[in-house]
Each structure stands twice: as structure tokens, then as C-alpha cells.
């Protein structure tokens, strides 16, 4: 499970991104593709997945999206969320893996 903290929306308050690579939003739907949820700060208490303001869901079963996460400034200085999916096939190579770069500096 990936976890990253940083200011994703540029408001000066730390936000949290959490990955669930072995899960799906609806457990009744079969093999898990993985997903990432973003919780903007300040936040307290428990938050159900469906309540999160931003969720990224893998495109195929078994992609393992969210195994690792990072938050860093992009080339334009705005925050970027990097989310790894290590089991995504690339150009015929099974489990080659990819890292998605998601600019989230404007909300
Ligand atoms: Ca923030």
C-alpha cells in the first residue's frame, strides 16, 4: 500500500494520497485492479472511499495501482502525484509496470 503526503492543491495544507493495490472500490466485481484515493487537508476522523473527493482507478484487473506513491513539484512547479502500477503490461512485456503522473495543482 502506497502512502504519500504533500500539498496537492497548493493551499498550504498537507493532503494525503493512499493506494490500495490489492483492492477495488466494489469488492463484488472480481479481481482487484487497485486504486488511489486523495484526501485534502485539513481532515479528521474516518472517511469512506466513496466520500473521497478524488479517486484514481486502474484500467484493468491486477494492475496493482497504488503500490507506491509520491508527491513532488512538476516542471511547472505545481504539485504532481506519481502513482505506480507495477503489474501493467507494456509493449508485450507482462508486469512491466508504469508510473502515472497526475498534475493536481489546481482544484
Ligand atoms: Ca492542500
Compute the gyration radius: what is it? Answer: 14 Å
> Could you spell the SSE succession in H and E letters?
EEEEEEE
Structural class: mainly beta
Number of strands: 7
Which ranges are low-confidence, i.e. pLDDT below 50, for 5 or more consecutive residues? none
Quick overview:
The protein has 107 residues and is an all-beta fold.
Please tell me about this protein's structure.
The chain is mostly beta strands and 107 residues long. It has one domain (3-103). The protein has no helices and 7 strands. The protein has strands at 3-6, 15-20, 35-39, 54-57, 65-73, 79-85, 98-103. It has a 4-stranded antiparallel beta sheet with strand order 1-2-3-4, with no helix packed on it. A 3-stranded antiparallel beta sheet has the order 5-6-7, with no helix packed on it. The chain starts with a strand and ends with a strand. The relative contact order is 0.25. The model has no long low-confidence stretch (mean pLDDT 86). It binds calcium ion.
Please describe the structure with a list of short key phrases separated by commas or semicolons:
mainly beta, 7 strands, single chain, flat, 38% strand, 107 residues, binds calcium ion, three-stranded antiparallel beta sheet, four-stranded antiparallel beta sheet
Question: Layout of SSEs?
Answer:
Layout (H helix, E strand, L loop, with lengths): L2 E4 L8 E6 L14 E5 L14 E4 L7 E9 L5 E7 L12 E6 L4
Antiparallel strand pairs: 1-2, 2-3, 3-4, 5-6, 6-7
The structure holds calcium ion.
Amino acid at each position: 500500500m502506497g502512502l504519500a503526503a504533500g500539498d496537492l492543491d497548493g493551499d498550504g495544507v498537507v493532503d494525503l494520497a493512499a493506494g490500495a493495490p490489492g483492492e477495488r472500490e466494489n469488492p463484488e466485481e472480481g479481481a482487484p485492479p487497485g486504486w488511489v484515493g486523495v484526501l485534502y487537508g485539513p481532515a479528521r476522523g474516518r472517511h469512506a472511499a466513496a466520500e473521497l473527493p478524488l479517486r484514481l482507478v486502474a484500467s484493468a484487473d491486477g494492475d496493482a495501482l497504488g503500490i507506491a506513491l509520491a508527491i513532488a513539484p512538476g516542471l511547472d512547479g505545481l504539485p504532481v502525484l506519481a502513482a505506480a502500477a507495477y503489474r501493467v503490461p507494456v509493449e508485450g512485456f507482462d508486469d512491466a509496470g508504469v508510473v502515472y503522473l497526475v498534475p493536481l495543482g489546481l482544484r
